[in-house]
C-alpha cells in the first residue's frame, strides 16, 4: 500500500512509500482509509520543530523505523481482531467489517490515576496515532478498536468524518463552559478556532467575536457565524509600547462589539503570546478563559497577571484533546444537524489526492487555508 512516511530528521523528510498493509492485531480493527486531514501537529512534524521531533525520535528509535504520519482520518473497517468486543466507550458499540469509522487519536492506558477517574484525555501514559505509532496518511491503518468511533454513513459524509477528531477539540473547548446566551470571543481563526465558531453558534452563543491577523481566515469566520471579526497586527513595530497599544486597541474594539454584553467567555486558540495577554485583558471580570493555543516556546510572560487574572476573578481552563467519549457524543449530535455539516465543509478549503501531499502541506503552512484534506480512496 501507499503511505506517507517521515524518514529523515529534518524539515520535510517525508517519503511516498510502498509498504505492506499492516497486520490487524487481536484488539485492533484494520481500516481502509477514505480521507485524512492535516493538523498543526503534522505541520510541526513536516517543519521538524517544536516538541514533536523529540517525541518521534524516542518512539521510532531515532527514525530507524520510519513513521507513517497522520492522525485525523476516517474509513471503512475491513477486518476485526479476534479479541475485539466492540468500539468506543467500554467497547459498548458492536463493530464489524463494513462499519464507517473515524478515530480518537489518543490511545489511553485505562489504568493510570487519571484514567481510573474517568479523565482519559489526560492519561499519563497515552500514545498518539501518527506520532508514536503508524498513522492514517496511508491506504490502510490498524488501530485499537477502543479508538474507533462508528459513524452513520447516511448522516456523516466522508469529508466531515475525517475532521471529527479536530472538530472534537473545538467541541471540548467551546462546551467546557456553556456558550449559550453568552458573548464569546475567539482569538485565532485557524481550523480549531473556526470549528469553535461553529460549535459556539450551534450551542446558542449570543454574540461571537473573532480576532486573527489573517484576512482570509477572518472571512471564513464570518462565513460560519462570527458576528464581528477584528484584524490584529501580530507584530507591531517591536517595542513593548507598540505591543501594549495594539492590545489596548483590540480590547477596545472587542468592548464595542460586545456591547450590550461583555466578553463572558474568551477562547485563546492562537498560542500567540500577545493574544494570550489580550485575551486576559478582554475577558470581563468574573469571566472565563479557555486556553488551547500552544505558544512556540513553552514559557510565556503574562503582562498583567495581578490586574487581569487575580483582581478580575477570572477562571482559566486549559483544554487538551477530546473528552473520551463525552466530546464524541456531542460531536455526533452536532454533526447530525445539516447546518453544522455545511459549515464544517465551508472550513475545508482544499482537498488533494494523497499522492499530492507535498502541495497539501504547502497549502496548510501558507495560512491561506482552512482545513486541508487528503482524499485517500474514492467511492
Ligand atoms: Zn490533530
Ligand atoms: Zn491512563
Characterization of the model:
The model has no long low-confidence stretch (mean pLDDT 96). Strands 3, 5, 6, 9, 10, 17 and 18 form a 7-stranded mixed beta sheet that branches. The two termini are 17 Å apart. The radius of gyration is 21 Å and the shape is globular. It folds into 2 domains: 2-166 and 322-375, Alpha-Beta Complex (Quinone Oxidoreductase, Chain A, domain 1), CATH 3.90.180; 177-318, NAD(P)-binding Rossmann-like Domain (Rossmann fold), CATH 3.40.50. It is of the alpha/beta class and 379 residues long. Strand 12 (207-212), helix 7 and strand 13 form a beta-alpha-beta unit. The chain contains 13 helices and 18 strands. One zinc ion (ZN) binds at residues 108-109, 112, 114-115, 123-125.
Key terms:
binds zinc ion, single chain, seven-stranded mixed beta sheet, 32% helix, alpha/beta, six-stranded parallel beta sheet, 379 residues, 2 domains, Quinone Oxidoreductase, Chain A, domain 1, Rossmann fold, 13 helices
Indicate the topology.
Blueprint: E1 2-6, E2 14-18, E3 28-37, H1 40-47, H2 52-59, E4 67-68, E5 72-80, E6 100-103, E7 106-107, H3 113-116, E8 127-128, E9 140-144, E10 148-151, H4 158-161, H5 164-175, E11 183-187, H6 191-202, E12 207-212, H7 215-223, E13 228-231, H8 240-258, E14 265-268, H9 273-282, E15 288-291, H10 305-310, E16 315-318, H11 326-335, H12 338-347, E17 348-353, H13 357-366, E18 371-375
Parallel strand pairs: 11-12, 11-14, 12-13, 14-15, 15-16, 17-18
Antiparallel strand pairs: 1-2, 1-4, 3-5, 3-9, 3-18, 5-6, 6-10, 7-8
Helix pairs in contact: 5-6, 5-11, 6-12, 8-9
One zinc ion binds next to loops.
